[in-house]
């Protein structure tokens, strides 16, 4: 099971460097953001789930200037960075919260936006049920996450070094879709894009992953530093994977999804404490 306290600690530790290394996250987030062009919505209340340093929270406020926009994250360090970028007028609101226990009233949110946070959910159905609870019947859930082909080259290279798990397992698109359906979300849609980024060195790949706080959290993971021999074996294994290419390929399987709020009038019981988005 994923340790949420460890997730919060890892991302808080990386908060000060996150924006420097998060170009993949911004690329996928930009593609998610573009999908808003296809949606005919005029949201009054927007929540950015897993907002990190608030990059897309601010973009959402800029696009929907009249809306109340709140960024939510589990990592205190990330929210500190987000608030530092908020400006004198504090246009965006930020709250420390778990995406499985959102501090919002039933059917109170018009748009839930989530870029690359769902892969940190240990119970997709529970998370989607919480999303369904806070969405208005006409509200929109728009999200991205990562599929199982993500970091496949790095995973293969590590498998030739030892039998420990160095790379997280990621979500199957069909499991995400099933979780949306079972939570009562309306008309769920999923699609995927495979994105390949190129690096000059293996060290650069690992530096970027460490820089955003994306440490391996799955069971059986390696917890120690690699020896010089293991490092050399890793580079040799990755050299074999890239073959005649001049750079090291890194694949991200981006999963995109959207759904609408549950059409039924019944709401899901919650033990959270609502906050005011004003």
UniProtKB/TrEMBL annotation:
Signal peptide: none annotated. It comes from the Bacteria. SUPFAM superfamilies: S-adenosyl-L-methionine-dependent methyltransferases (SSF53335). InterPro entries: BioC, Malonyl-ACP_OMT, Methyltransf_11, SAM-dependent_MTases_sf. GO terms for molecular function: carboxyl-O-methyltransferase activity; malonyl-CoA methyltransferase activity; S-adenosylmethionine-dependent methyltransferase activity. Pathway: Cofactor biosynthesis; biotin biosynthesis. Converts the free carboxyl group of a malonyl-thioester to its methyl ester by transfer of a methyl group from S-adenosyl-L-methionine (SAM). It allows to synthesize pimeloyl-ACP via the fatty acid synthetic pathway. PANTHER family: ARGININE-HYDROXYLASE NDUFAF5, MITOCHONDRIAL. This is Malonyl-[acyl-carrier protein] O-methyltransferase. The gene is bioC.
């Amino acid at each position: 099971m994923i340790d949420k306290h460890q997730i919060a600690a890892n991302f808080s530790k990386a908060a000060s460097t996150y924006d420097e290394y998060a170009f993949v996250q911004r690329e996928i987030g930009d593609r998610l953001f573009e999908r808003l062009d296809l949606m005919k919505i005029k949201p009054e209340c927007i929540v950015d789930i897993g907002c990190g340093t608030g990059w897309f929270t601010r973009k959402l406020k800029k696009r929907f200037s009249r809306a109340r926009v709140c960024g939510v994250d589990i990592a205190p360090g990330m929210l500190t960075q987000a608030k530092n970028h908020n400006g004198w007028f504090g246009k965006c609101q930020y709250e420390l919260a778990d995406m499985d226990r959102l501090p919002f009233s039933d059917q109170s949110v018009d748009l839930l936006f989530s870029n690359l946070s769902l892969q940190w959910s240990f119970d997709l159905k529970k998370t989607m049920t919480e999303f369904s609870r806070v969405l208005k019947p006409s509200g929109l859930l728009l999200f991205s996450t990562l599929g199982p082909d993500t970091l496949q080259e790095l995973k293969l290279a590590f498998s030739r070094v030892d039998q420990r798990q160095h790379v997280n397992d990621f979500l199957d698109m069909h499991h995400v879709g099933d979780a949306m359906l079972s939570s009562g979300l309306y008309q769920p849609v999923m699609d995927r894009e495979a994105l390949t980024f190129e690096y000059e060195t293996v060290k650069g790949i690992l530096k970027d992953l460490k820089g955003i706080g994306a440490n391996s959290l799955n069971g059986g993971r390696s917890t120690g530093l690699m020896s010089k021999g293991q490092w050399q074996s890793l580079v040799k294994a990755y050299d074999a994977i890239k073959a005649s290419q001049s750079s090291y390929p890194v694949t991200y399987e981006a999963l995109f999804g959207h759904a609408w709020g549950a059409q039924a009038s019944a709401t899901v019981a919650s033990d959270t404490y609502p906050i005011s988005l004003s």
